[in-house]
Amino acid sequence: MTELTLVQAVNRGLFEAMRQDPDVLLLGEDIGLNGGVFRATEGLQKEFGAERVIDTPLSECGIVGTAIGMALYGLKPIAEIQFMDFIYPAFDQIVSELAKFRYRSGGQYPCHVVIRTPYGGGIRGGLYHSQSTEAFFCHTAGLKVVVPSTPADAKGLLLTAVHDEDPVIFLEPKRIYRSVSGEVPEGDHRVPFGVARTAREGSDVSILAWGAMVPTSLEAAAKLADEGISAEVIDLRTLVPLDEAAVLASVEKTGRAVIVHEAARNAGFGAELAARIAEKALYSLRAPIARVTGYDTPFPYALEHLYLPTPERIESAAREAVRAG
Amino acid sequence: MTELTLVQAVNRGLFEAMRQDPDVLLLGEDIGLNGGVFRATEGLQKEFGAERVIDTPLSECGIVGTAIGMALYGLKPIAEIQFMDFIYPAFDQIVSELAKFRYRSGGQYPCHVVIRTPYGGGIRGGLYHSQSTEAFFCHTAGLKVVVPSTPADAKGLLLTAVHDEDPVIFLEPKRIYRSVSGEVPEGDHRVPFGVARTAREGSDVSILAWGAMVPTSLEAAAKLADEGISAEVIDLRTLVPLDEAAVLASVEKTGRAVIVHEAARNAGFGAELAARIAEKALYSLRAPIARVTGYDTPFPYALEHLYLPTPERIESAAREAVRAG
Amino acid sequence: MVAGSHPKDIWATATRADGMTSARVRPATVERGARAPAGVPDARRVEAYRWMVLARLVDERCLTLQRQGRIGFYVPLEGQEAAQIGCALALEAADWIFPAYRELGLALVRGVPLETLFDQFIGNSGDVLKGRQMPNHYGYRDRNFVVASSPVGTQITQAVGAGLAARRRGDAIATIAFFGDGTTSSNDFHAGLNFAGVFRAPTIFFCQNNQWAISLPRAQQTHSATLAEKARAYGFEGVVVDGMAIDEVYRAVRQARERAVAGDGPTLIEAQVYRFGPHSTSDDPKRYRPAGELEKWKQHDPVAGFRDELIREGRLTVQDDEKLWEAARAEVASAWKTAESKPPVDPLSFLDDVFAQPTRELEDDRRRLAALLAQREGKP
Amino acid sequence: MVAGSHPKDIWATATRADGMTSARVRPATVERGARAPAGVPDARRVEAYRWMVLARLVDERCLTLQRQGRIGFYVPLEGQEAAQIGCALALEAADWIFPAYRELGLALVRGVPLETLFDQFIGNSGDVLKGRQMPNHYGYRDRNFVVASSPVGTQITQAVGAGLAARRRGDAIATIAFFGDGTTSSNDFHAGLNFAGVFRAPTIFFCQNNQWAISLPRAQQTHSATLAEKARAYGFEGVVVDGMAIDEVYRAVRQARERAVAGDGPTLIEAQVYRFGPHSTSDDPKRYRPAGELEKWKQHDPVAGFRDELIREGRLTVQDDEKLWEAARAEVASAWKTAESKPPVDPLSFLDDVFAQPTRELEDDRRRLAALLAQREGKP
Ligand SMILES: Cc1ncc(C[n+]2csc(CCOP(=O)(O)OP(=O)(O)O)c2C)c(N)n1
Ligand SMILES: Cc1ncc(C[n+]2csc(CCOP(=O)(O)OP(=O)(O)O)c2C)c(N)n1
Ligand SMILES: [Mg+2]
Ligand SMILES: [Mg+2]
After folding, report:
1. I need a labelling partner for D82 at 20 to 30 A (CA). Which of A114, B302, C285, D160 fits?
2. What is the pLDDT of residues D169-226, one digit of tens each?
3. Are residue D300 and residue D368 in the same domain, yes or no?
4. In the CATH hierarchy, which top-level class contains the domain B2-184?
5. SS3 string of B151-198?
6. What's the whole-model pTM score?
7. Is there a catalytic annotation at residue C312?
8. Residue A267 CA to ligand 1 centre (angstroms)
């Protein structure tokens, strides 16, 4: 066990994966000498060489298309997209190709690429260095979507991703890259997909969150406890596959759900959670399902603190839910 | 009034828009001499010339980027994407640029482009000529998302789109391009955005649908009536802006909601409808909210009849809802 | 490019039905390596012709089958047989192919059984792809023939990636991406050729310039004189070859392959051909093709041309030829018959292969759908 | 390109810290029109220099402000002043500019008040963009200066579209897209140049090749000898100019503009410059820049170079120069002071301008957020 920040844990995970398997290689912009703009790939090119830690031209389309070709051939490429906001030039490759290769070939061509990308707001990045569009990828059958919220999970889920057989969109909450640190197991630490983590137990209301919204939700839960409201915080960890059972069990216990995400509300992944609860746990509900999310605007610069869900907004939603029934 | 098919109504709408305003122009692949692969632009190049009905090179990125530049300059371009499945090479321009121009410029640069594209399954198009990924665009703040289901609405919503000040994703249900026909008003017929249409009144269950799923839902409703179940069918017509009031009013009346769409279920737009109902009409619900949708697989070829929602599946969901409470 | 193999007018300016002119460009430069390999080797010339005839007949048959509603869709290759079969013969079995949707000739030479292709066109229980894809979008791992998709161009960057992977593994192979003239405008053409240039990928970019992208003529696709010269923008060579002449194609591909395997990087080959048929069975070229254009190109029919050559070379007699067509016709008929008699694909199978292991949701869906189908059939 | 204006070594091969070589290419071809316009006109030479000095000082100041936490981010242009200001002077006010994020020199010459730029950097109540964007991502409709975004390249196709729209309207203007060497790899570079070639758009593609895309050197970005030659792939001309020499830039842009307005189509200009500073305030070039490279290029500092030229030309004395720097410094200080003293942006304003008219949902959000903020401030 070592105390690491989240971005350090990602870095250790990459080191571990590359040591384990010579087929693992990285490609992306500025990931070599520069170590990535967030330093997630620091030291890797030095250790593994420029043939395995590949600085590419400025083309996300090229990065993902090339990674797919490598994966088809049998390598295990990990592509870095510098910011999630810049993933769209590769969207065609991801949605039309990566997600559909296994299926369209009748199972002949698995296509195991891991795409790592920092996502989310809170770093004064404005419209184009702040987005969280996980819903796009969740809606695309064939992709797994992973969002760690702790250093241990960052490493453990990353190693699981690298050893998985399916394409994985691995979203790193850059806002807490350095602000969160914690114990991370050494070596081949793996955290399974599809298993949510109960970040805090509670009985009055279920707060469902992922990524950078988990610490924010925990802050809210702590304050709610002061008022006598016992909030359970569920960290989903993987959105696809989803630990639906954990979500339903928590809501069945508490009777109330507050869903938290940074992304815009309309057709965000929170809607999916609400829909599942409304289908499968309706009779347990004691209050309307609340969503505390980003607004249906592009991501603003100067006022991002108002755009992003805050503990205050989460508390208020939880309080209302408790008041409702 | 003339009896037209849906694709003819689109064609008439385009003729009308281009006659009304010399700033309206079309660009896309094979839309000129060839009249579009579905013949939606038949006759337009002959009438308005190759300067206004522009056959472009094979690049959706170029089509949308160029259209945006034209719109910034003050023209009113209507871009055709040959199939919705091929919109992804332009995804960056749509999500990063088109949707965000007005906002990021503080209102200085409205960016009024209409993107027309045939969407949906039922024509044996397999993975890449069948998709309905409206949820991607609904989740992107700054875009309006329109889906007609009748010839009259196709023309009326298209003319509203052309005269709107915001970017519009205009989805044409190609499966019913020719199978549905109806009376279409001549001239400057407009149907407002944000106003749902009650396609059939009913009191036991609300079926919420759009595009090609509206006739399928009406078929189901007719069969349900035979069993004594009175189903209301709401045709949303525009997903953004959404006529939330109409959705809630219907569900409050019937106490039961069945949401129908062709797209994959996970994080589809149906989830958003369910979430809104679970937030704002929870206490009216007499049964779990049901979704009848495409499956969380890519779109299959030989078995598309099993993939697509059928009246049978809708009926069964409605029946269950009625049985539930 | 065999000098004088075509009359000037084909390469000169054609006039479209709408009066627009579409410039046909004579190859600007033709690369000839020092050790230029010969054309299709003696031992394989008749074989090559046989593949061309077979492809031609499959095309004919499939167009009919589509009209009869027995297959849903078809993309013909008529006019492009020499380009595809010349190219296929020049490759090695270990080379990885990234096709578009028109590469039937290639698939046949690769050894994909005709019956297997027909199974795919039907989407029946014999279809390796399990009925998932439209006709022509096939792929066979055991033939190093990657599965096609519809969005144009996406295979180009993938071919580069596979080439780099092969190099990393120490496999002395080439990867090759197939695409048309229209696809040179795609995002992936740019990204793929640029990556290949920077990383010196062992990749061949094989562009069948059939002069049309559905209804858009080559001249309106891009303003460059040739498509081949686009390679310069990425720091490597492009060559134009007469795609109606199988030996030209064979030679260019051999050279490019040698270069790739030797570590000398990528090559762009523009094979100038002509699509005799419609873009697909959904297309009607009468709407856009200028009068007389097809007829001019048909004078250079690659199949007839190669037959005459083989006869001149004394490798084929008119009688041989007749027998060969007959045998091929029988082969097509029999393969189709077998394919058509197979049972349909398992109805639940469309829920498989989304992931290596189904999610809980997909398992539930499978269970529910099985119940629904059982109920429909009146089973308990 | 002024022959001999740089010592060979700058254009020759530089060695990266990691031992990789990055080839600096001497311009292959330099286009000279028959009626080559002269450089920056006599009457505007001192003005041009003044803009360069102002840009240099704004850069200096902003780097400090960012370190002090008074602005959040900054993208410096040091080293690129001659390219930007030469270009800006060669354009007409009616020409539409599609900038990237590094075009501060251009914005100044266009007449965007410095205070307005500072307002944007802060995102205060004076910011025309209402605090929506990161510093450097500005745009001013009244200056025909389109609002920048971060994703690279997207402005390129847009500039083509605006050019075609202007032509349709009968406006005799050019549109111009700015981008860097790295951005030549983007999807939109390919699509934009291809569309421009096909439609003969009145568009100038102005590439400031500052030798780096963050940490990626030009030689690893693409394998072509120059960036300018990529234009050939789209059927028009590309030219390389020495971007450290303002007259060279001015001349090339004037020519390209004349060509555009005359209906002779697009031009790609590659201005070879060097980024003296970091990519942005988030970047540390020490991690990747080879030793000595910066120093070599600094010998060709465009500001110092042009000052010396003006002194040689007798248009400027050393005393004038000192006064000019002083005046510019005062201008910067005063503009900053005014900007910094402005109140913050209206907190509810981030909910505006999503659409022309807010949706019901956005109106609800506004009401709810207003209530929350009032509550926070203890208001009822
Ligand atoms: C991204 C994308 N856009 C549009 C289409 C529709 N489409 C299918 S084939 C085709 C033309 C392709 O032309 P070309 O590359 O010359 O190949 P050819 O069909 O002539 O062999 C088009 C526009 C597509 N498949 N993919
Ligand atoms: C699509 C996209 N990918 C990645 C980035 C991150 N990024 C910002 S600037 C930059 C380098 C741009 O280099 P160049 O085009 O040479 O312009 P310069 O910054 O040197 O002026 C990168 C990779 C981005 N802004 N957009
Ligand atoms: Mg073609
Ligand atoms: Mg640069």
Report:
1. D160
2. 999 999 999 999 999 999 999 999 999 999 999 999 999 999 999 999 999 999 999 9
3. no
4. alpha beta
5. HHHHHHHHHHHHHCCCCEEEEEEHHHCCCCEEEECCCCCCCCCCCCEE
6. 0.96
7. no
8. 32
